């Protein structure tokens, strides 16, 4: 998005503020669909956890996406946004049987990732088909926190437990309609993806009632110019061909599903915060903004590097800055970044702020979560109001009489 438009949005709605460009989301959705055009039945289920604002979910539905959810609350948001239950897949990890039953009662597709729940669910509801999340024991993903398909991971049912899994399916009489894997986020090497897919194909042959195979996600997006990214066109070519061949071997046309989060929304998001203070120390020039990891935690949590641009002075002379937040502990957005000269009051824009940014925001330090704005066909729409003091205290049960006898006496 252009700096002038972003500045106008910050003027109108205030800062800090998240802005999402619907056009960029659409073009990513279309790009992925095109990449897999040789697949007769392709289903993209947007991973709601990346960005779960209702308007974004409605946009995804409008584009023809299904929805990947990990909690009963995400399921409810999806239904509220108008998704049909059968277009929602529920892929929880470590949740209670009751929560899974609640999702099943809402009619969404169920994905189960441990044998204990599989056995209990199959015994109680043999008539409800389920998908199985497999752990293929593959090390993939950009860092240890987002690598989830390896042998030490808590996710999925090990490929070495397939005989046990088949016994449960057999004894309960349940039906397995899908096989799923998700090995991690930010996967750089599509060969790793293809290797894990072969494991999934081998496993799939052991289930006769499949309707779909879900390859999860993990597409790496670029974070700066020239950065590496998953070549989805090549993946589409190679995995697509292999999938079609597999369907012939399986004897039926299956649906190929993905559940992209970052790929669809990361680059469409812009986070803007105003510079409160420029502070020169003996070693560094800090630009301190009116935000912190309470609004954008990825740099501190994952070491993620978001490009930072001074949109108040885009063509100014570049200097080195460390951009930091106002949280009462180390709170660094970026160290030693070359940014156009910063003056107090300038607006800094953090790129790739669409995925796992607002959804991970909190009220730490009793700060308000920011507003969200959708930029759609040349117009800005407020899609979430900035929080207020009332939001901070809304659910608190204030007991003033508990420690103050005078208040107690007055009652
Ligand atoms: C099961 C599952 N599917 C999909 C995703 C989305 O991954 P990404 O944002 O890398 O596309 C995740 C991310 O954590 C996930 O856990």
TrEMBL record:
Top-level lineage group: Bacteria
PROSITE patterns: ODR_DC_2_1
Keywords annotated in UniProt: Amino-acid biosynthesis, Decarboxylase, Lyase, Lysine biosynthesis, Pyridoxal phosphate
Modified residues (N6-(pyridoxal phosphate)lysine): 49
EC number of this enzyme: 4.1.1.20
Domain Orn/DAP/Arg decarboxylase 2 C-terminal: 18-354
Cofactor (UniProt): pyridoxal 5'-phosphate
One protein family per Pfam: Orn_DAP_Arg_deC
Boundaries of every Orn/DAP/Arg decarboxylase 2 N-terminal domain copy: 23-266
Catalysis performed (reactions): meso-2,6-diaminopimelate + H(+) = L-lysine + CO2
Gene Ontology molecular function terms on file: diaminopimelate decarboxylase activity
Binding annotation for pyridoxal 5'-phosphate: 218, 356
Binding site for substrate: 298, 302, 329, 356
Pathway this chain belongs to: Amino-acid biosynthesis; L-lysine biosynthesis via DAP pathway; L-lysine from DL-2,6-diaminopimelate: step 1/1
Protein family membership: Belongs to the Orn/Lys/Arg decarboxylase class-II family. LysA subfamily.
Its job: Specifically catalyzes the decarboxylation of meso-diaminopimelate (meso-DAP) to L-lysine.
Assembly behavior: Homodimer.
PANTHER family, sorted: DIAMINOPIMELATE DECARBOXYLASE, GROUP IV DECARBOXYLASE
Name of the protein this chain belongs to: Diaminopimelate decarboxylase
Species the sequence originates in: Robiginitalea marina
């Amino acid at each position: 998005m252009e700096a002038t438009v972003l500045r106008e949005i910050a003027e109108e709605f205030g800062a800090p503020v998240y802005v999402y460009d619907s056009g960029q989301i659409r073009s990513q959705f279309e790009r992925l669909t095109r990449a897999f055009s040789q697949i007769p039945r392709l289903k993209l289920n947007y991973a709601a956890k990346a960005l779960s604002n209702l308007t974004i979910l409605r946009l995804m539905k409008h584009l023809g996406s299904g929805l990947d959810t990990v909690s009963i609350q995400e399921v409810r948001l999806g239904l509220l946004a108008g998704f049909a239950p059968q277009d929602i897949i529920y892929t929880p990890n470590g949740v209670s049987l009751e929560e899974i039953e609640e999702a099943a009662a809402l009619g969404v597709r169920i994905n189960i990732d441990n044998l204990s729940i599989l056995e209990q669910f199959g015994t109680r509801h043999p008539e409800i088909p389920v998908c199985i999340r497999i752990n293929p024991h593959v090390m993939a993903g950009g860092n240890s926190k987002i690598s989830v398909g390896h042998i030490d991971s808590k996710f999925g049912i090990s490929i070495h437990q397939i005989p046990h899994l088949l016994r449960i399916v057999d004894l309960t009489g349940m039906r397995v309609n899908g096989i799923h894997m998700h090995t991690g986020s930010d996967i750089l090497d599509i060969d790793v993806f293809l290797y894990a897919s072969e494991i999934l194909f081998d496993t799939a042959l052991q289930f006769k009632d499949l309707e779909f195979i879900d390859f999860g996600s993990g597409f790496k997006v670029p974070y700066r110019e020239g950065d590496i990214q998953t070549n989805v066109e090549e993946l589409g070519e190679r995995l697509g061909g292999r999938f079609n061949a597999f369907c012939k071997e399986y004897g039926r046309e299956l649906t190929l599903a993905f559940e992209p989060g970052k790929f669809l929304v990361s680059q469409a998001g812009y986070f803007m915060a105003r510079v409160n203070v420029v502070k020169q120390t003996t070693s560094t020039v800090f630009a301190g903004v009116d935000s912190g990891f309470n609004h954008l935690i990825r740099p501190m949590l994952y070491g993620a590097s978001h490009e930072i641009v001074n949109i108040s002075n885009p063509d100014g002379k570049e200097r080195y800055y460390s951009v930091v937040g106002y949280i009462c502990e180390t709170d660094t957005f970026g160290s030693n970044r070359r940014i156009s000269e910063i003056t107090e009051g300038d607006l800094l824009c953090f790129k790739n702020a669409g995925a796992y940014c607002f959804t991970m925001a909190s009220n730490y330090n009793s700060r308000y979560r920011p507003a969200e704005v959708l930029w759609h066909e040349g117009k800005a729409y407020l899609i979430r109001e900035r929080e207020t003091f009332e939001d901070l205290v809304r659910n608190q049960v204030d007991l003033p009489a508990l420690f103050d006898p005078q208040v107690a006496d007055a009652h």
